[in-house]
Predict the 3D structure of the following.
Amino acid sequence: MITYNLIQITYLAATALFIFSLKWMSDPKTARNGVFAGVAAMLLAVLGTLASPEIRASNLVWVGIAVAAGFVVGVPLSRVPLTAVPQRTALSHAFGGLAAGLVGTAKYFLWLQDMPAELTVFRMTAIILEILLGFLTFTGSLMAAGKLQEIRWIPQRPVTYKGQNVINLGLFAVAVGLGVALIMNPTMAWSRVVFLIIIALALAFGVLLIIPIGGADMPTVISLLNSYAGLSAVAMGFVLDNKLLITAGALDGSSGLILSIIMCRAMNRSFTNVLFGAFGQVQKSAASTEQQVYKAETAEGAAQILEQANLVVIIPGYGMAVAQAQHKIRELYDQLKKRGMTVKFAIHPVAGRMPGHMNVLLAEAEIPYDDLVEMDAINPDMPQADVALVIGANDVVNPAARTDKGSPIYGMPIIEADKAKTVFAIKRSKNPGFAGIDNALYFSDKTWMLFGDAKAVVGDLVKQMSGGGH
């Protein structure tokens, strides 16, 4: 009884720390404490579980092997560059989903063989939910990580075909139908085969769910997969009768869902449109009778204009992450501030490939957090901006979202860079963004293009402004 009470107190403390972790991570000033609280909560959860009577001495060897395997995978993952955090996050979701699915599978076959009476309707419902959500999260997250990593054999653009949504939903409906049949009769004939078929369908659905989704929707997809992983953990908690798993999974699932809603609002789109709308597919547009032409500028010319500015708004995007240009941007920031200019960073909610991607990269370069301004707060100041410096962003600054009803991004809130007095856009090539359309901003009379790798271009700007190019 004493051991049981100590374990429950440990779980209670871990639950409180998980809640504080989420709370503290919502504010940059307390984010580091939030990380420490989350680590401490997980350590307490593991220690409490190891102390439970169910963990026999003979099983500790297997536990040790599992912990060692976790270190082998986890240590290299912890050392990935910040530009690879989105795909690392997707892999974490994949491992979480796989763990939940395997636990549900193990419990079903153990109870089916030794204690079929334990397979009540409630427990079977939890097991079916656990394996459906767990295994589709596993393959879906692997696909998302592959897209983010730009693995050659995984297409970056959405893959669509006729009747795709019908096939996907039909596949999932079959899995749910078989699951309901098992819930009603868990010891039915061919129950093991039916269970394995459900797993196979869930794995296939995870792949099919992600392939029609483009890179522009990755922030929403990652937060959705986070939510699925959390919900699978909730189901696993009910299967194992573990209150801490239920609480932690609910926190994870609800926070992921809330974040997904924020992402969808930022794009003025619905969940169904994100999951089934193939945003990011190359759009076919009517040929224009008038050839649009970019106006290129040199780093020297751009530096001369920047030196005369009072307010400079820097708008980072995925191109900044790919080029790992955040430290050069810090040098440019220092040069501008040294001249007494006001410098702000305009952050779009879906810039990059995961929620908060730009914030994380700029924080790595020690950009003061007070100078990072959200889209809604910076847009009223854009007409007063002397220069808007767009670094690797595309669709999130495209004015077609306001003006072109035929555009796939029409209605999406954007950072209104086109209202600045002068716009400099750093871009690697003339290729369109993930929405597959040209950016009207880049053809504006007030816009000048600086083509090249963002790190190199910003480095040239710093060199010019520091006197090295004169």
